[in-house]
Write a structure and sequence with these properties.
Strand content of chain A: 5-15%
Number of strands of chain A: 1
Oligomer: heterodimer
Largest sheet of chain A: none
Number of helices of chain B: 8
Order of helices and strands of chain B: HHHHHHEEHEHEE
Distance between the termini of chain B: 24 Å
Largest interface: A-B, 24 and 31 residues
Distance between the termini of chain A: 30 Å
Largest sheet of chain B: 5 strands, antiparallel
Chain lengths: 67, 219
């Protein structure tokens, strides 16, 4: 909560200072889904090929999708 | 309540240790506790908010020591004893107390999947008008209720902005006390990281928190 950048670093994800970090503190009535950022150069990939890039960590926001 | 569970902003717990290939359950008993809790919940002797409050009211030292499903089990035992679903003697012996009549469990195997798929939505229709609108400045109230609440300490008294209106939802504070659902508007409120944590925070960072209308004042 107080140090989201530090927590993400524990997961091996370094967030540059010029990228804003928005912490969503879920209180359980509303659930949120992480939509991973599409990596550059993947515009031509099929749904199946994109699916193969998605991991658990990219869906919980602790890792970026790597092509 | 200002309990040990309300940890937002606390220091000293050490780094997160991500577990590779984390399993759904670390031991078979964890799955049994999940099933037990679902089965007990089907009796409707308590609601989800009262269930959460029973976890918050575990002794603080136990709360910190126990794993996730150990807390679930400890709380399930408290709730089941309190509601008379089991007796102290049954808990201690692991055998049915012959003086207690046998009842048919309300949750049978065929009802498990439909119940899980249905979930427990908390949205309720209301004719009341929302007090706040997106973009409006609000201040979280400085209140210290002793019962269940979703207003964490780190945000009390702080200035925020309404981000989104989610419509009316069951009010956990009253529901946990069996005082009814008393649905009221739920809003996502944006607090800048600097408002919460001071000048050392990145000026672009923010915390978004869902708060009920009763937690908020016009700023």
């Amino acid at each position: 909560m107080i140090d989201p950048r530090g927590v993400l670093k524990d997961f091996g994800l370094a967030v540059p200072d010029d990228v804003a970090v928005r912490v969503w503190d879920s209180t359980a009535e509303i659930r949120y889904l992480v939509l991973p950022e599409r990596p550059a150069g993947t515009e031509g990939l099929s749904t199946e090929a994109l699916e193969a890039l998605v991991t658990r960590d990219t869906m919980i926001g602790t890792a970026k999708v790597t092509p | 309540m200002n309990g040990v569970h309300d940890m937002g902003g606390m220091h000293g717990f050490g780094p997160v240790e991500p577990e590779a290939n984390e399993p759904v359950f670390h031991a078979p008993w964890e799955g049994r506790v999940l099933a037990l809790r679902r089965g007990l919940g089907a009796w409707r002797k308590w609601n989800i908010d009262a269930g959460r409050h029973s976890i918050e009211t575990l002794p603080p030292a136990d709360y910190l020591r126990m794993s996730y499903y150990e807390k679930w089990l400890a709380s399930a035992i408290k709730l089941a004893l309190g509601a008379g679903l089991i007796t102290q003697r049954e808990l201690e012996t692991g055998k049915r107390d012959p003086s207690v009549p046998v009842a048919t469990p309300p949750l049978t195997a065929d009802k498990v999947l439909p119940a899980i798929m249905k979930g427990g939505p908390t949205h309720r229709e209301t004719t009341a008008k929302p007090r706040f609108a997106a973009g409006q400045a609000v201040r979280a109230k400085e209140i210290n209720p002793t019962g269940h609440t979703r207003l964490p300490r780190y945000v009390r008294g702080r200035l925020g902005t309404i981000e989104r209106d989610h419509g009316a939802h069951v009010f956990p504070d009253s529901n946990a006390k069996f005082e009814g659902e008393q649905p009221q508007y739920l809003y996502t409120v944006r607090f800048s990281a600097r408002e919460l944590w001071g000048e050392a925070a990145n000026p672009a960072d923010a915390v978004y928190l869902d708060l009920w209308e009763d937690y908020l004042d016009v700023a």
